[in-house]
Amino acid sequence: MSKASEHIAYYKNENGPVIGTAKERVIEKDGYYFKDIDGTGEYKEFDDWRVPAKIRAQAYVKQLTVAEKIGQLFVADWRMGLYQKDPSKLDESGLLDEGEVKKGSNIFATQDLPGTTDGLTGWFIRHLILRTNPKPNELADWHNQLHSVAEDCKHFVPVQTVSNSRNEKGEMVFGMNDAAGVFAEWPGTLGITAAIKGDTIELIDDFADCIRREWNACGLRKGYMYMADTMTDPRWQRTYGTFGEDPELISAIFERMIPIIQGGENGVDRDGIAMTVKHFPGGGARENGFDPHYKMGQWNVYPTEGSLAKYHLPAFKVAVDKKASSIMPYYAKPAAQKSAAQTTLGGASVKMDPYGFAFNKVMIDEILRGEMGFGGYINSDSGIIHNMCWGVEALDPAERIGFAVNCAGVDVISGSFDIEAALEAYNRGKNDYYDTHPVPAGYKKEDIILTDEALDRAVANTLTEMFELGMFENPYRDPAAAVEVVSTASDWANAYSVHQKSVTLLKNKAVLPLTAEKLAGKKVYVEAFKKKTEDAVKETASVRETAKAYFTLTDDVNEADIAILMVSPSSGEYFSATPGYLELEICEGKVVPNVDDEGRPVAETHVETTLADCGRLKEIAATVHKNGGVVISNINFTLAWEVGAIETVSDALLAGYNTEPKATFDVIAGAFAPVGRLPITLPKDDSVLAVDENGKCISPNDVPGFDKDLYIPDKMKDNNGKAYAYRDEAGNYYEYGFGLSY
Question: Which segments of 580-712 are extended strands (E)?
């Protein structure tokens, strides 16, 4: 079957970009080649790569029809032909899924969807989210096929595929990290921070440079990455996608990372990857951890005066200053009634209008664009038009689109292709709809319709990004080159080095490292623990296979001199509310209170388990200690776990962050001396997270762990004036920046 990759013609400009085309859309002028963007065969200013991208975009948007512009307002999940099981529903190349989807549903929306070619040519969709995990050559081939279809349209606009991060190890979670294991694989972002704290921030440079080269080689030119959110409530499910709890360090990371990934200090360039930094104005200020994917998490709360400017906005200011291509607002809305006075970074008082941040003109237009000077575009989080429309429930879908785009200033709406609703919002501005239908209370007509001015602004903003990326000139990529780039040995070596550096030694009773002398004649028992027993069995087999290279193993704990316990707790479900608060204790069968619709504790209870068979940890420790042996435990931190149940039975305790087990064994065996430091503070126990009958937490939701003791009652503090952080038997506090070395 014919692939576009086999039929691309390239025209090389001296001192200019290469023009790539699958349809011979080329114009020659002044001794240069240009892409015939509007299909007229005549040179136009917007064809000219010598003209600034913004000017080209603003000129080209005037050539597009209303339908073509509305198709570009949305971005949502799309599928590859690679995963289509019915060959009759593939295009001739076998790359595009042409099957129609009836009532396709996810947590964001339910809608009918066309085949890929119809979506590109009929709906003029140009922004797609990729959540599958193909190989590099498959990615390049698929992208080439999409662009080839786009070239069949009179008005050529390339197809911008976006993905969440793909360069960290971890379980693939829908909407968080969409893929793992294909691109060079670093530890989770918490692990990157742990390594930076113990080594140098310069290691972020290799990470960012690898992302830029790998993604570009495969045709992925935009990433929903990374989270500039400061983690302040430890029960937030998205903790593991952050760079921790220190706004100063997060800011420093983004300061180095954005220019490298995007290709320069002045924004994206032809070899760069456009970044969508999330989630403005900071998703960490959760009310007792509740996530805004569900009703109880719809509020951002700021009970501490000045916390917004002190902890949550600084990293976004860096993103603005470093010209991040786009910024994603969070779903939540600010809670004035649950917040103390807040100011902007410039000291202005913040008005907390109760609209989700993607609908919030104060936050987007006045603060982000106005005071902070953001010049890129706004990409909403997924689902704001239907399931996560917090604060605008009184509006219908068309009005929500108008309110987001026309009033707040959103340029791309994520989660569904609501083209009919957007056209309705546009038509309502032209017809007499509101002569016979009431304008919803509290709104103005001009705010809830979609005007030509707003539509042109939104589309011109996203076109500008594609012009800057050089996608109009040459969106095509070589599949063989993609494989070669992703196979670059130095990238994988750099990634593994950060895995080693991420390992954090928290406790060591003269046990580690396990040198050859200490291991002489010793048998080592290794077992993995996870939330589900069946997963633990599989993981145990895997880590034992890795451990064989380091230790003499035994399957019988009764004859073990050393036990190594690999502990990977898990709590809650990302896209659905737990009956109560997200559980942070490493436990099994724990009875905890439910909460009401306002997130307050009630008398009813339910049972939580974060680690199956966790009682065996104590049993194993007792058996090994009876033998005169030692217990070494490693906890995988995706949340700020309460570690008391593990620390008290362990002679040595390590922390990982979706870290390669091999890297952990390198540290245990002394092949690599630990340098990692905690990227978050670990809470002592439930007492420092207690929520009263009114839903107020004893430690403020909007303050990082390292500062929570400033607000916790003095009666809870120890002789060192500390209450929040866990303290082990050696007297060490497991707070931000802590870690031991050999």
Answer: 590-595, 601-608, 630-636, 652-656
Reduced to 3 states (helix: H, G, I; strand: E, B; else coil), residue 635 is strand
Residues forming beta bridges with residue 727, ordered by sequence position: 733
State the amino acid at position 436 in one-letter form. T
State how far the alpha carbon of 6 is from the alpha carbons of 21, 90, 144, 477, in Å.
11, 18, 10, 11
Give the pLDDT band of residue 20 (cuts 50, 70, 90): very high
SS3 333: strand
> In degrees to the nearest 10, what's the CA dihedral of 305, 309, 311, 314?
180
Q: What is the CATH class of 26-484?
A: alpha beta
Answer yes or no: are the C-beta atoms of 533 and 612 closer than 8 Å: yes
Distance CA 511, CA 629 (A): 10
User: Among 607, 593, 604, which residue's Cα sits nearest to residue 692?
Assistant: 593
User: Where are the strands (E) in 123-227, listed by range?
Assistant: 127-129, 160-164, 222-224
Tell me the one-letter amino acid at 626.
Answer: K
Whole-angstrom CA distances from 420 to 303, 414, 426, 651 are: 41, 15, 10, 63
- CB atoms inside a 10 Å sphere around CB 443: 16
pLDDT digits 0-9 by tens, 124-173: 999 999 999 999 999 999 999 999 999 999 999 999 999 999 999 987 55
Residues 6 or more apart whose Cβ sits within 8 Å of residue 199: 501, 675
| Calpha distance 245→189 (Å, rounded) | 12
- Ranges of each domain in the chain: 26-484, 503-570+611-682
Please give the structure tokens belonging to residue 125: 């969709």
Cα–Cα distance measured from residue 352 to residue 357, given in angstroms and rounded to the nearest whole number:
10
Percent of the chain residues past pLDDT 70, beyond the cut: 98
The candidate with the shortest Cα–Cα distance to 338, out of 361, 384, 305, 378, is 305
Peptide bond into 354 cis (omega under 30): no
pLDDT in tens, 583-602: 999 999 999 999 998 889 99
Q: What is the pLDDT of residues 547-562, one digit of tens each?
A: 999 999 999 999 999 9
Residue linked to tokens 């319709």: 449
- At 270, is the secondary structure helix, strand, or coil? coil
CB 567 within 8 A of CB 662: no
**HSE (CB half, 13 Å, CA atoms) of 282?**
34
CATH T-level topology, domain 503-570+611-682: Rossmann fold (3.40.50)
- pTM for the structure as a whole: 0.97
How far, in whole angstroms, is CA 717 from its chain's centroid? 36
Listed residue (156, 143, 39, 25) closest to 11, CA to CA: 25
Where helices occur in 219-369 by DSSP H, the ranges are 247-262, 307, 314-321, 361
Over residues 665-685, mean pLDDT: 98
